[in-house]
Design brief:
The chain is an alpha+beta fold. It contains 4 helices and 5 strands; from the N terminus they run H-E-E-H-E-H-E-E-H. The protein has a 5-stranded mixed sheet with strand order 1-5-4-2-3, sandwiched between helices. Strand 2, helix 2 and strand 3 form a beta-alpha-beta unit. The protein is elongated.
Length: 181
């Protein structure tokens, strides 16, 4: 190979390395941009009848509940699993809601839905599927007529997303709505 061909080949290699480095850096910048701008959004607005809480065989901290018996109340239904750190991060907010809305017609129900094989049980999986739930944690707000109105997926305050304030506002709005017979 002559000297000019070798120089061109070396130049091509250097250009390829530069292009690769630029692509990697651009990917990192893009990923950082996406991660920083994808904060939680408004809860997803839903209008569907809330599926009944079926096949729950064990209740902790309450007697068995049925959504049909909770008409006239706003229901906060959250799906969680004990091994999920995101679910654990939401627990203090649920506890504050329980205190702050204690005098209002708000019922907070947590449904444990196993995420891992070790936690999985067919009955528990069915509970989650009635709501087409695929994320942990997920929070559903059900109005006084038993309609699922809003859903929030993930941590309420991930990257200061404002989910606690947003969901409190939605709960208060649902409480202000008149119950229909």
């Amino acid at each position: 190979m002559d000297t000019n061909a070798m120089k061109i080949q070396n130049l091509n290699r250097k250009m390829m390395r530069c292009v690769c480095v630029l692509l990697v850096r651009a990917s990192v910048v893009w990923a950082t941009f996406v991660a920083n701008t994808l904060t939680a959004e408004e809860p997803k607005s839903i209008e569907q009848k809330a599926p009944e809480l079926a096949r729950i065989t064990q209740w902790i901290n309450s007697k068995p509940l049925a959504l049909k018996d909770l008409r006239g109340k706003v229901v906060v239904l959250h799906f969680w699993t004990f091994g999920c750190i995101n679910c654990q991060h939401n627990l203090p907010y649920y506890n504050r809601w329980r205190t702050d809305f204690a005098k209002d017609d708000v019922q907070i129900i947590g449904v444990h839905t196993p995420e891992t094989t070790g936690e999985a049980d067919e009955k528990n999986v069915r509970k989650r599927e009635a709501y087409k739930n695929r994320y942990w944690p997920s929070i559903y707000l059900i109005d006084k007529q038993g309609q699922v109105r809003y859903r929030w997926d993930g941590e309420l305050e991930y990257r200061d997303s404002g989910g606690d304030k947003t969901m409190r506002t939605k709960i208060k709005a649902l409480l202000a709505e008149a119950a229909k017979p």
